[in-house]
C-alpha cells in the first residue's frame, strides 16, 4: 500500500511537536531541493532562531567525528536536546569504517534527545549550503537546543557552511603531515574557537605551541573576541569542560554585542546561496534544451564558450542579443 | 614608470609565439575573470585543441605532487613541451613545505620546455573550473604538447576539473588511513587510469590488491576501455614507463573511437560552467544593491530566504513578481 503524500506545510506543523517522522521527511525534502517544500521551509525559517548552532570543521584525520561524539554526550549531561548534521563523506555516520566511533554513535543514536543526520556532499549543485541551513532551521523549530554542523573543512562550500553558524570550532590534530596542515591553514581564520584534538599524544604539545604561535600576531575581532585554543583528548575525555566554557563565553559575547552583525552576515550568506541555487536551477533547464547544439559547435571549435554562454545568459535574463 | 596596458587580444596573438610574458599575463587575466579578456579567450579557444590534457587527482598525502615532478621529467625525455596547472592549496608550487619536492620543482622550473602555474582555489566563486580550462587553452595555443592539471581530489569542483581532461589519472597511496580512503572512494569512478604511489613501501601491495578487488566488478566503459592500475615509486622512479604506456593506450583508444563523445562532454561541461559563472556574476551585482535590506528582514525573521530569493530571481530574469 503506497504511503499517502503528506503536504510539506503539514509536515512543518508536525515538526513543531518534534514528531521524528515529520522532521526526517521534511529534512529529506529540503535536501532534495523539492520546490513543493519551499513555502513550508519559509514558514519554518520565520519560526526558527532559538537554538545555538555550532559549526565544527577540520580536515580528514583530525579526529573531529570522535570529538563530536564525546562532545554531544557532555552537552546531553547539561540537559538540552542535541542535533548533529554531518556534511562529510568520511563521517562514521555515513558509513566510514572507524569501528570505535560507530559504537559510540550507536549509543548516541539510542538517546531520544539526540538527532543525527548525515548529508551527501556531491551532486547538490551548489545547493548544499542552503539545504544544510534549511535542515538546521527544521531542527531548531523541532526544539533542539544545540545544533552541530560537522563539515570536512576542505572545499569552499564546506568551509562557508561551518562559518554560517553562531560559533565556529576549527579542529587541528598532531601528526597529520605537512600537506594536510597546509590545507588546514586556509580555514584557521574562520575559527571562533580552536581545538587541538588527540592531546593524549606526545606530539600534541608541539601542535598546540605551533598554533598559538601562528595566532599570536592576529588582531582581536571588532567585537573584542579573541579565539581561544583548547586542547582535547577524546580518548581520556579531557578538555571538554574547557570547550563548553569557551562556547558559553562566545555565546555570551555574541549576545552582549547584540549578535546583530553575525545574524545579518548569516542572513546575507543564506539569501545569496538560496538566490544562487534558484537561479542556477532555472539556468539548468534552459541549458538542457540548448546544450547539445552548442556543445557540438564548441567541440568543433566553430565557436567558443564565452560567445555561447553570452547568448544563453542574454536569453536567460531577457536582454536583447547583440547578434 | 607604469607599464603600458596591453590589450588581451594582443596578448592572445603573442601567446601563439609562446612568449612567456604574454602567456603569464593572459593566464592572470583568465584567472581573475577579467571581462576585457573574454573575447581574447574566445579567440584562443577556437585555436586550441592540439595538446593532450591529463588530469591528475588524489587526496592530500597521496604523493601526487612528487609523482607529477618525476612524471614531467619522463615526458620531457620524450621531447615534447609540458605545462603543469596545479589547483591544490597544499601543492609545493604554491608554498607547501615538502623540501624534496621543492628542489625537484626548482630543477623543472629551470627547464625552458616546462611551464608551471599554480591557481588559487578559494574565492573564485564557482569560476575556478572555467578559468582552469581557459588556462589550459592558453597553454595549448602556446604550443605545450602535454598539459597536466593537478587537483586535490576533494571538493566537487576539483574532481570535475580533473575529469574535464582527455585522460584522468587518480592517485591512491598506501597508509593514508580509513578516513582519507573513504573520501577517495568517491573519485575512483572518474579514473581512466589508476595509480598507486609509494610502491617502495611494504604496505603498497595491499593497497594495490584492495584497489584491484574494488575494480573487479566494474563494467568496461561504452568504448571498451578498462581503467588499468599502475604501481609507481617516485623514490625509485619505477612504474613511470607503465604509466606513459597506459596514457598512450588511452589516447589511442580515444582517437580510435573518434574521441567525439569525450570532446562533446567536455565542451558541454565547459559551456555550463561558463554560463553559470557569467550568470552568477550578474546576479551578484543585483544582490549587492539589495542584500542589505533583505538581510535585515531575514535576520529579524520577518521574511524567509525563499521568498526573498524568489523576488530577486524574478527581478533578475525579468519575470513578473507575484506580489
Radius of gyration of chain A, in Å, reads: 22 Å
Report low-confidence residues of chain A grouped into runs of 5 or more. Answer: 91-103
Please count the beta strands of chain A (DSSP E, at least 2 residues each). 7
Please give the domain count of chain A: 3
User: What name does the CATH topology of the largest domain in chain A carry?
Assistant: Rossmann fold
Q: Numbering strands along the chain, what is their spatial order in the largest sheet of chain A?
A: 3-2-4-1-5-6-7
CATH superfamily of the largest domain in chain A, called what? P-loop containing nucleotide triphosphate hydrolases
Helical amount among residues of chain A, as a percent range?
40-55%
How is this structure best summarized?
The structure is a homodimer of 323-residue chains. By secondary structure, chain A is an alpha/beta fold.
Q: Overview of this structure, please?
A:
The first copy, chain A, is an alpha/beta fold and 323 residues long. The first copy, chain A, has helices at 8-15, 20-32, 38-47, 64-77, 99-109, 128-141, 156-163, 178-185, 204-216, 240-256, 260-299, 305-317; strands spanning 52-57, 82-87, 114-118, 146-151, 167-172, 193-196, 229-231. Chain A has three domains: 1-46; 48-257, P-loop containing nucleotide triphosphate hydrolases (Rossmann fold), CATH 3.40.50; 259-323, no CATH class. Chain A has a seven-stranded parallel β-sheet with strand order 3-2-4-1-5-6-7, sandwiched between helices. The longest helix of chain A has 40 residues, at 260-299. Mean pLDDT of chain A is 84; it is low at 91-103.
